Amino acid sequence: MNWKAFIKIPFLLMAMTLSSLSYAEAVWIDVRSSAEHFLDNIDGDVRISHEEIVQGVNKLLLDKNTEIRLYCRSGQRASKAMSALKEAGYTNVSNAGGIYDARKERGIVQ
């Protein structure tokens, strides 16, 4: 084997790995009550009630620029939670509306 080609392999592998990396997925947070979440939820999503959103997100140790997508039943509590997080310095927070909207946006079939 040509030794020059052999030396290039690690660099090619590293380049392929870096090119396949993508930015982290958004953190999806259900801000409904624990009872609502128990009856219907999206697997893997975090549940933090809208009243405790800032404390709950702080416990997750998220960077203030992490994309955070909030949802509830209709979008009203998610809107309140979004305002609280923005006031606390989180910069990439959005309201996805209700749980059905969150499923639709992500292509989750129930």
pLDDT averaged residue by residue = 86
Distance between the termini: 54 Å
Number of domains: 1
Number of helices: 5
CATH superfamily: Rhodanese-like domain
Percentage beta strand:
15-25%
CATH class: Alpha Beta
**Bulk shape:** globular
H-E order:
HEHEHEHEH
CATH topology: Oxidized Rhodanese, domain 1
**In angstroms, what is the radius of gyration?**
20 Å
| Helical fraction | 40-55%
Structural class: alpha/beta
Instruction: Count every beta strand, where a strand is a DSSP E run of 2 or more residues.
Output: 4
Reported CATH architecture: 3-Layer(aba) Sandwich
Adjacency order of strands in the biggest sheet: 2-1-3-4
Low-confidence stretches: 10-23
- What does the main sheet amount to? 4 strands, parallel
**For this entry, what is the oligomeric state of its chains?**
single chain
Describe, in plain words, how this protein is organized in 3D:
The chain is α/β, with parallel strands linked by helices and 110 residues long. The chain has a single domain, classed as Oxidized Rhodanese, domain 1 (3-Layer(aba) Sandwich). Helix content is 46%, strand content 15%. The protein contains five helices and four strands. It has a four-stranded parallel β-sheet with strand order 2-1-3-4, sandwiched between helices. About 13% of the residues have low confidence.
